[in-house]
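Why predict the complex rather than its parts? Because the way molecules touch one another can change local conformation, and only a joint prediction can capture that. The input here totals 518 residues.
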Amino acid sequence: VHAQNPLAPFLQKIHRRSLLTGEEKEAILGLPVRIEQVSAHTDFVRLGSSLDHSCLIVHGLAGRFGQGPDGNRQITALHLPGDMADLHSLLSPLATSAMQALTTTTIVRIPHVALREIVVRYPAIAECFWRECVIDAAVLSEWVINICRRNAGVRLAHLYCETAYRYRLGSMAEQFAFELPVTQHQLADMLGLTAVHVNRTMRALVARGLVHVTRGTVEIPSWRRLVDFADFDPAYLHFEVAPRVAMGVVMNGAGRVQL
Amino acid sequence: VHAQNPLAPFLQKIHRRSLLTGEEKEAILGLPVRIEQVSAHTDFVRLGSSLDHSCLIVHGLAGRFGQGPDGNRQITALHLPGDMADLHSLLSPLATSAMQALTTTTIVRIPHVALREIVVRYPAIAECFWRECVIDAAVLSEWVINICRRNAGVRLAHLYCETAYRYRLGSMAEQFAFELPVTQHQLADMLGLTAVHVNRTMRALVARGLVHVTRGTVEIPSWRRLVDFADFDPAYLHFEVAPRVAMGVVMNGAGRVQL
DNA sequence: CGATGGCTTGAGAGGCTTCAATGCCGGTGG
DNA sequence: CCACCGGCATTGAAGCCTCTCAAGCCATCG
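Output of the joint prediction:
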């Protein structure tokens, strides 16, 4: 409820998918936090470590990293402000992939103990968290398709679409700009390409007039044309889901808004 | 508890990760089921449909399919008998990817209503289901790395490793064989390759003596050599997790085995 | 002002695809 | 009983997309 509460963007994001009561919102906003600054290119979750907390991105950008055979890295998920980056660690504390800040990033660490508490006390929150994990998996699934079945140009365009859509929470104008201050090398790690080829691909997109990139900001002259080119269908991001309650109704009994 | 209960393999699988009480096991085995035969290459979950049930693979093989731009398909997950293929639909009923039988497969459909009931009644089961979703996501994450960052040979070998490991529930001998009756075209859809190149790659693996493939059965002369070649580390499959209870302890109060 | 990190561009190589044709096998119907 | 057919496996040749290696440029920063 405090505007500058670091948990507020997170609450806003999950609330559009799973309707919560005022009490439940308070519970989330009241979660104990440990704020932390992470500079670019440094891990804040190490591979193989056992976690007793989950991380929420407050400001900046973070990526989930996996390791290939000869040390080459692959980003499997991009996390924007408001994302609980490793909520899943609550259920499976062994970190099977690392988390790294892509830019200077401020994160918040939330102890599993506290999360467990509100999850037990408010089943609707448990459901909501569970749903977030499921949707993260759906996004990851699309990530696979993007990387495997599209060529470099479409791939990059699709990434732009996804990121823009998530930043703007689904309310798209026909023409706008957004910040994506990542290096081409980091883009390459996301797209399964090399930095050199990302460069060429990017310039090709610019030459086609699909985007206009300058210093970490991406301008989109025509959202419709980009979507068309990128084969982008936002359904998998699950933004359009009408807020509804699956288990909360039963679990909490009455006092809950329906559908 | 009935040996031929179609839910028994599923219970066995999840029980090695999340310890359950006798009562909870009974609750799972008592779930209402609708058995169904699905012949190869036919969808049993259509893209874009809204689901009121989840599907459990009893016998055969199923894949989760995504669609690329020009209709080319990509398999994002392979489901073996005992897998609850779309447990996630309980939280997010809109099917964002299709499910298809790869061979003649018998599945069981379990109404969401019934799942919701036991999830509400037994929080430990909710936790357990949630964990399954999280682990599915971890497997998917490794799938990304496998496809993006490894060449065709290593890719195929890694798929063999993963499948073998899951079939045998992690207890590997040095030398064994297992069934994988899928066509090379289906393998291609899993690996992000073409059927032609899968063929060549497979023959290269055979020539190297890493595997021996005949008519849908894969023989592995040396598990260690294959693992080495495939860059396979089973940690992401979360088989070795000691059974422990995160929220069940609190949620159910006493009467629960710890750690 | 040198050093560093990121961006840009070129040339050559390689892995994978595409297109095409052949062979094998099991099923089906005359 | 056999010819036919369709799905699958196999192999070849050519081409393309992307990688690798290499060099030069620009901005920022100590």
